[in-house]
Amino acid sequence: MGILGVFVPGLPTTVFILLAAYAASRGSERLHRYLMRHPRFGPMIHDWQAHGAVSRRAKWAASWAMLFCALVLLGIMLAAGSHRWWMTALPIACMAAVAAWLWRRPEPPR
């Protein structure tokens, strides 16, 4: 589902990937060690587990990605013309809510 979310607007990607990583790491100690030692994902996972924190860089990356997706969605829906207004507003509102929640998360102590 997480990989599908990369290609389907409105389908959450990160949530499914994090859930899969969480479930797999609980089922496999080897995978858990691999994820925690991974040079890119390990520090982010540790910050989340220890503090519920998200780095400022990750917040900016997620915010820009959501803005880009919202603009693409808006452009496609305006070009198509045959849709209801809420079909555009609902996913954009969800992205705005996620961005607001994300920016309210603490940053990891450094």
Total number of β-strand segments?
0
The major beta sheet can be summarized as: none
The proportion of residues forming helix, as a percent range, comes to over 70%
**Helix and strand composition category:** mainly alpha
Average of the residue pLDDT scores = 86
Strand content: under 5%
Rough shape? elongated
> What is the string of SSEs from the N terminus onward?
HHHHHH
Distance between the termini: 34 Å
Radius of gyration computed on alpha carbons: 16 Å
Unreliable residue runs: none
Oligomer type? single chain
**Number of contiguous helices:** 6
Task: Note down, in words, how this protein is organized.
This protein has 110 residues and is mainly alpha-helical. Helices cover 76% and strands 0% of the residues. It has 6 helices and no strands. The chain is elongated.
Keywords:
110 residues, mainly alpha, 6 helices, 76% helix, elongated
Question: How is this fold's topology laid out?
Answer:
Elements lengths: L1 H6 L6 H14 L1 H9 L3 H11 L4 H25 L5 H19 L6
Quick description:
With 110 residues, the chain is mainly alpha-helical. Helix content is 76%, strand content 0%.
